Amino acid sequence: MDLPSLLICILLEVVAVKCQHIVQERIVGGYAPVPHSIKYIVSIQTRDRQHFCGGFLINKYWIVSAAHCNIGVHKMLIVAGDYSLTIYEGTEQEILPHLVVPHPAYNSTTNNSDIMLIKLRAPIYLNSYVSIALLPRQDATISEGRVCRVSGWGYTSPSGSQIPSTLRTVKLPIISSGKCNSSESFNGSITENMLCAGYSIGGKDACQGDSGGPLVCDGRVYGVVSWGRGCADAQFPGVYTAVSKFRRWIDNTIFSYYSRCNKF
Ligand SMILES: *[C@@H]1O[C@H](CO)[C@@H](O)[C@H](O)[C@H]1NC(C)=O
Ligand SMILES: *[C@@H]1O[C@H](CO)[C@@H](O)[C@H](O)[C@H]1NC(C)=O
Ligand SMILES: *[C@@H]1O[C@H](CO)[C@@H](O)[C@H](O)[C@H]1NC(C)=O
Ligand SMILES: *[C@@H]1O[C@H](CO)[C@@H](O)[C@H](O)[C@H]1NC(C)=O
């Protein structure tokens, strides 16, 4: 992107006009939520503070994200309580991860089981800017047409420079797995561990850099931003890891590390 179009784009963003063809790599077609109203979301960054994925807090020590966001525990930094990534707001809490637990069945070819737990070195302090997200019960379903909300900071362009970015959010309906898995769409690539959400006319979606972030329906995180084809394409909705398929794994994993700590 050249400088003039970047500037035009920022300007358009300021007057809240969609600038989809240029800012493709962020939540597409969404809006900026009230600052600090989405308190469970975290930014996952490199140690030199480049945002690359989202995640969400499920308790003071644990974050859920996508397995494909695993760049190695020693390269990651977790930021909670953030809104603008470029402005210091005094509400941020930066914590290093202690360990990462990508799902053992994660397959980067099929994208199946794209979920990861991150344990923090120190507990996050819960306050009016940071809280925890609720999860659905094991195997809880969410029906087609239910409107959910996905949030994230999007990403820099593949070539580099980051647009000053505040959190974005967009509301999307659930699309049935049947429709999403059909030959008109993902043609057999959707597993029972995935959820699809988006509009059949396209225009609204999560996008690269939103990966790992929460899709919230009825006050619980039913989806983790996982993959797609392009962004906001009418034919291809966003694909999310179905959190309810992993609720037992999440609880068991957290419990196993908890008991291990207590033994020593
Ligand atoms: C991933 O899935 C593909 C297709 O089912 C399979 O061929 C491959 O062995 C799997 N990879 C791993 C690491 O399990
Ligand atoms: C897995 O996700 C990538 C995008 O991250 C996509 O290009 C690829 O087609 C997906 N794999 C399958 C088997 O659908
Ligand atoms: C869908 O998948 C089937 C079986 O894998 C394949 O034969 C067909 O060509 C695919 N259709 C499209 C539109 O890609
Ligand atoms: C999607 O289609 C493939 C191929 O037909 C099938 O194996 C898979 O179980 C389907 N997924 C769901 C969620 O039904």
TrEMBL record:
UniProt enzyme class: hydrolase
Signal peptide: 1-19
One term of GO molecular function: serine-type endopeptidase activity
Reaction it catalyzes: Preferential cleavage: Arg-|-Xaa, Lys-|-Xaa
Keywords noted in UniProt: Disulfide bond, Hydrolase, Protease, Serine protease, Signal
GO biological process: proteolysis
SUPFAM superfamilies, A to Z: Trypsin-like serine proteases (SSF50494)
This protein's record includes keyword Cytoplasm: no
GO cellular component, one term: extracellular space
Sequence ranges assigned to domain Peptidase S1 in this UniProt record: 27-255
Localization per Swiss-Prot or TrEMBL: Secreted, Extracellular space
Primary location group: secreted
One Pfam assignment: Trypsin
E.C. code: 3.4.21.4
Highest taxon listed in the record's lineage: Eukaryota
The protein's name: trypsin
